[in-house]
Every structure is written in structure tokens, then in C-alpha cells.
TrEMBL record, chains A, B, C, D:
The gene is tpiA. It comes from Halomarina halobia. The keyword RNA-binding does not apply. The keyword Isomerase applies. Transmembrane segments: none annotated. This is Triosephosphate isomerase.
Length: 214, 214, 214, 214
């Protein structure tokens, strides 16, 4: 199971969460990555944790002021990137372009989608993985694996129908080891989570509980 | 073969083009539709030609000032709609929502895409048809079937890999009966065209030449 | 006072509301306009009511599939247009381009803005009028003139500081003659309203009550 | 004169340019800042050069995956930010929100605009400075001060008509000391430049030539 901790624009200390994630990953052999703001990437990567970007734009080197260039996030230490998170939805053509930009820069990719149909579409664009996150459950604390288990199973089926080699992560409301185990039962190979760790009083304890479900 | 004439925001007389299309469709049994600006839909539909919208938003009835509501274009006489044209690219989630809105209003749908990979993704969202239009060829007068025949064949294969029942139209640079015949040879079941008819001195003659390729 | 009834994407009968507005305007000498979906413009204009568009894009004739061309809405009978409604916010450069497009097509313009600072900015772009609508009050039924009278007075001051000749309309929560009278007291020269008329059981009665405040 | 070097998404070494800028600034007392990709901010700030962001989003701490949070760029060492660059145009309401976010994080602000009218609008939103950059001249090597001196003078007048305390920078095609001197003559208090330094074989020499115009 891959655990990807999205720090969004939360008022947490990204380095403290990264250190906690690095410690738990070392102790447990779990694969845990942290995705901070682009401006925090080099500080987070400095902790030794697996570091991801939250977004890259589908642009090449050139006149793109204010863009997030895949090569720049890779320079800063990112080894992967989310694309099309529900808080940063992209045009279909830009999901495609973002994937090509990430590939060019050697970044692993997870494309997010809202429902099984969109998971199928995202899979057709050739990402390393897809993630299903029903927007109505994000940030609720109610895990998608409990609130709507069918959406996870249907997403796994939708991805497999297009390309069996693309794993499905699941997000929205995941915070405990039990949630992670349930997500695995439903066929997902990882989880996206955010507030459950980033806003925890003790991120390290939250991560230890989470990976106990592996 | 389905011939869809997109009037874009051209300074043509939409009713004159619609009358020409209606006449040629009647005379030849070709299926020809005209897609004008939303504000011109009722005038175009009044000619009796098959009338399409150029775009609908993925919204329901409600507080959506300045949107293009699927039910409103259907009221005005549209029976189908383009979605995600390269001049009106939508977010992946909004292509999905636009398709659901169009279905709800009883509109037939063609989702446009730039390349075979995006055609596969569009097909996964469940449209009635998809169209491949390499943006670099739009408006050039060089037909995609000649400039880049592989892109048409690859698009047909990409759609079939996801759902064999979804036909592929092809666009970009189509203007003659020869172009249409070539598009058909490559596996497409229709064409999108715009300037070749809308900017023609004699739209009726242009359409007659075009459908001679059927 | 100018009364602009925005039908948004409401499930109302646009022609029935337009007829009610035309009747009340005739009976009372109030200036009342109706802004329907683009696809409904010609039907609404056919009633004889003053007809406005909800939006125009900042484009010229050309390859702009799915756009709302100012000339097309004028063809369909619109004599004015909203620009930058809070449900259709535009980039600063596109507010400017939309205004120039509307001018070119002979449309009167009202640029919407969320707060006095943005009203000042909108005024600098040279519209015929500006409107202040705090987004948090839209659709609440609580009139801005009551919930936040300062925002109306400040908007009037902000517009005047940039260009004294640009009148300020006010929107958000307006539905009664009392609300309209209060808006006038605060310095506004018109009102934008939507659900108060469009969703009324009896739009004509709602409009008669409203203009009784003039 | 303030010299702001925008590195866009150019394939330059941001630290090398930053070191060159820091050296020239030290030697000449010119005010020179460098604006890299967000992911490069901390590396650039580490050189001691005045560091700016290319963009911030108008968001607060919270669920905003893939955003550029003003506090995050400040953490990474930025002391100012561009907003609404022509390659990253924002909605009018988001220019306002971006300015408020930057203020909250203690960042100095320059809002970019395409023409004098938009400069007036930007000024009304309360930035620390505005910049006029006609998009058609960006990257041409033809300085706006030479190609279209009126646009600079008109921009200075437009800003002053709204708020006399807001200085105007000028951009587009600036690369030599002569260009900078011309910009100053026309009333601007600084310049934005990009390729003239970022793509120079010797950025330090390019900057020395540039500030010789002060």
C-alpha cells in the first residue's frame, strides 16, 4: 500500500510532518510520501522523505510565468506528482499535457478523478496510477471505503477495463488503519490522505495507526 | 457519414448556411447538421435543418448566470451538442458533467479531443460519438486525413479499445468530397468542418461537393 | 431606477416572465429589462421587453467555438449585457475585452463586482454602469441594502472616485419595493434581481410590488 | 529604478542568475530582484538576492491542493510577488484576493496589466505597484519604451488618475541600459524583464549594462 499525505495549503509545519513520515516509513517499511506546497518542496525533500508535488502544469521550458514546471519540482526534490486533484481540476487536454510533462521530468504520476467514469478516462491517458476521491467526502472524516464502498470497487473495475496495469488509490476521508485496510479490501493499492495526518496533533502517531492497517 | 458544420463565431449568415445545408440534406439523403452560436439556435432550427449547439455547460437548472444550459439549447431547437471543442476545452470533470447534462436534455453528444489518447479518455466518459481534431490543423485547409492519416486511424483504434460502439468523427482541414472519402477510408463515420462551408462563397456548392464523397 | 431581471439558468418560462415584465414596464413607465439564457434571447426579445444578455465573451468574429459573441446576442435582440457576474467571473483582461466587444456590437454594459474595491476597478474599464453584489448575499432573500448598507454606499463612492458618470446598480437579495427604495436611498440607480421575480409564483405581481418602490 | 528579473519557466540556472543579480546589486546600489519558479524560491533566496514569487493565489490556509499560498512563498524567502502576469491572467476577483493574500503574508505586490485602462483598474485594487506590459511586445526584444512610448505614458497617467501613490513599472522587450533610461523618461519607476537577462550568455554583464541606465 502506498500512503500519500497531501499537505494542501494547511497551516501545518511541512518539515515536521515530513520528519514524522520519514520516521514511520523507516520503522515500518511502509511506503509513505508527502506532498507539500511547491515552495516547500526542497525543505520537505531535505528530510529524506519521499516527496511529491501537488500539481504540475502541462508546459515545457519557456514563457510560462506563474506556472509549475515539472522540471522545477523535480529539481527541488519531488519524485512524483498529483495531477487533476479535485481542488485543482484541469482541462482534459491539460491532464494529458501534465502527464507528458511529468514523464519528461522523470516524475511518477497519480491522476485524481471524481467517479469511476472519470477514473476510466484518466486511465486512458497513461498515468502511473489513478486515484478516486468523491469530492463530497473530501475532508469529512467519513472514509469513502465506508460511505460509498461501491465507488472504490467500480473505480478499480473502470481502470482495469481500460488498462489492467494501472493501480487505483483511494482518497476522501481516510484516516485510520481500519480505513486503509478497508480500502485495500476493495481493491485499491494505496490511499491519499490529508487532514487526518496534516491536522493531527501527533502526525507520527496518526501515521503509525494508519500503516498498522497494511 | 455525418457532416457537422460548425459556424463558430464566423461572420457568416447562419440562416443562409442552414438553408443551404437543409437543401443539400434533402436532395442527397446525407445527414448534415449545423452548429451556430447559442443565440442563433432558434433561427437556425427554424429552417428545418438538424441543429446542434457548439457547447453546453455541465450545470443543472439553478444559479448559473452566463452558462449554457442544456435544456435551454434544446428548447431553442438543438438536438445535439459538441462538448470540449479545442476552442472551448473543458476540465475532465466538466466534460463528464456536460455529457450528463446533455443526456438529461435529450441531446446527442460529440466530444472533441486533440489526439488518440484523449479520444480514448473521452470515449470512457460515455458520449454518443467522439471527434479527433489535431489543433495544429484546424483552419489550415490541410485535411487531417492527408496531413496525418495515422492520427485518424489511431483515434479509431483508441476509441474501439475503450468502447467499440462509439463512432469517431474527424475534423481539422476537411473541405472537399475527397477529404470526406479519405476520412471514411480511415475509419471515421463523419466529419466536423467549419470554414470550408461557413466561409465559402457558395455554401450550398461546398456542401454538394463535400457530400459527393459519401 | 433600472430594474434588471436575471433569469440565470432557472427553470422558469422565460417568455412568461418577459411578458410580465413588458406589461409592468408599459403600465408604470419603469425601466425593466430581462436577461435570459443566450438560447432564449430571441424568444424573450419577441415579447417586446427590453432584453439583455447574461454574458458576452471578449472575442471578435472568428474561430471561437462555444463562445458568446456580442454580435450574435445583438442579432437575437439583446440591447445590453451583464459582464463578470459573480457566477461568471472573468479575468481582468477579459472584462476589458468583453466591454470592447459589447461596445462594438452596440450593447449597453453593466459590469458586476463583489465589493467596493472591485467596483472601482470595474469603473476604470469604462462600462456604462457597474453593479455591486456581495456573493454571500446572492439568493439569500436578505437585501444587501439591509444586510450591509455600507457596501452599497462604499461602492457608490468607489465608482465616483474613478468616474462620476458611471451609475451603480445594486444586487443580491433584492425582492420588494422596500428593498428597491432602500437601494435608491443609498445612492444606487438600479437593481439586479433574479429569484425574487424568476421564482415568484406570480412574476407580474412581484414586479409590480418592486417598482412601487420607485 | 526597480529591476525585477522574471525567470518564467526558462531553462536557465536560477541560482546562477540570482548570484549575478546579487553581485550587481551589491556593486551598484541598484535594486534588483529575481522571481523564479515557486519550487526554486528557497534556493534563490539562499543567494541573498531580493526574491519574488511569480504568482500567488487568492486563498487562505486550507484545502487548496496545487495552489500557491502566499505564506508558503514567504516561508521560502520571497518578499514580493507578481500578480496577474499576462501569462497567468487572473479573474478580477482573484487579482483582488491575491493582493489581500499577499498583504496578509507581508509580500510586496506588483499587479501586471496589458494596457492603460487595465492599469487604472489594477491600481484601484490597492497594489504596491502596477506594471504595464503590452502582450504583443513580450519576448520580442523590442522595448515598449521605443515601440509604443504612449502606452507607458498613458499607463502612468491612468494609475495616477486613480491613486497618485502607486508607481508604474514597465515591461516587454526591455534589455539594455538605454531601454531602462527611456522607461524612466516616460515616468516609470522600474522595469520587468525576463529573456534579456535569463537567456543572456552572461547574465551579470546584461544586468550591469541594464543598471548603467539608472
Amino acid at each position: 500500500m502506498f500512503v500519500l499525505v497531501n499537505l494542501k495549503a494547511y497551516p501545518c509545519d511541512p518539515v515536521a510532518v515530513a520528519n514524522a513520515a520519514a520516521t514511520v516509513a523507516d520503522d515500518t517499511d511502509a511506503r509513505i510520501a508527502v506532498a507539500p506546497q511547491a515552495a516547500h518542496l526542497s525543505a520537505v525533500a531535505g528530510t529524506g522523505v519521499e516527496t511529491w508535488a501537488q500539481h504540475v502544469d502541462g508546459v515545457e521550458h519557456g514563457s510560462h510565468t506563474g506556472s509549475t514546471l515539472a522540471e522545477a519540482v523535480a529539481d527541488a526534490g519531488a519524485v512524483g506528482t498529483l495531477i487533476n486533484h479535485s481542488e485543482r481540476r484541469l482541462r482534459l487536454a491539460d491532464v494529458d499535457a501534465g502527464l507528458r510533462a511529468a514523464e519528461r521530468a522523470g516524475l511518477e504520476t497519480v491522476v485524481c478523478a471524481n467517479n469511476p467514469r472519470q477514473v476510466g478516462a484518466a486511465t486512458a491517458l497513461g498515468p502511473d496510477a489513478v486515484a478516486v476521491e468523491p469530492p463530497e467526502l473530501i475532508g469529512t472524516g467519513t472514509p469513502v471505503s465506508q460511505a460509498d464502498p461501491d465507488v472504490v470497487e467500480d473505480a478499480v473495475a473502470a481502470a482495469a477495463a481500460v488498462d489492467e496495469s494501472v493501480p487505483v488509490l483511494c482518497g476522501a476521508g481516510i484516516s485510520t488503519g481500519e480505513d486503509l485496510a478497508a480500502a485495500r479490501e476493495l481493491g485499491s493499492e494505496g490511499v491519499l490522505l490529508a487532514s487526518g495526518v496534516a491536522k493531527a496533533d501527533d502526525p507520527e502517531a496518526a501515521l503509525r495507526d494508519l500503516v498498522s492497517g497494511v
